[in-house]
Amino acid sequence: LARAFTRLGPTYVKLGQFLATRPDLVGMANARELESLQDRMPSFDQAVSVKSIEETLGKRVGEVYAELGPPVAAASVAQVHQGRIDGKDGMVAVKVLRPGVRERFATDIGAMLFAARLAERTAPEARRLRPVDSIRDFERAVAMETDLRLEASALSELAENSRKDTDFRVPKIDWERTGREVLTTEWIDGIPIANHA
Hints:
The protein is an alpha+beta fold. Helix content is 51%, strand content 14%.
């Protein structure tokens, strides 16, 4: 099931990620299998990340980062590299959008809207589920996820809202190294929430 969603592309991977959180809809076994879509997607080539960083930030990678390592995590929309700005500032997380992801989402969402409209027209029982409205909500969420400046703003707001909570850390945004397709933040080591032990 996870392989099928992966072959269909990033939009369907996002759908699979949502379904992974809903074992009540897809069953526990399917939800567990779909969890692999959350952060274990195949990475794209380092050269593609370098090109995207240079186009987004308008500088050569060597001018922006002292080091840029290989991808450490890849998901449906972007992948993350560990980098270093310089010895003083330490390690950073560099998130880079997948190439062509916005265009692919637009195409897939168009197909989903067509199917949702058809369902609402031809299946009266489907109208109560409001499939067109659901796809529009999904479309808005995807638009926010494919502009990393919006993610940076949300992180900044979260940091401000939780600044008095000493048990909660939000990585600092490096605004000089952040743009639509690149997000650079402080590197924070952590433990995946699924690692209960």
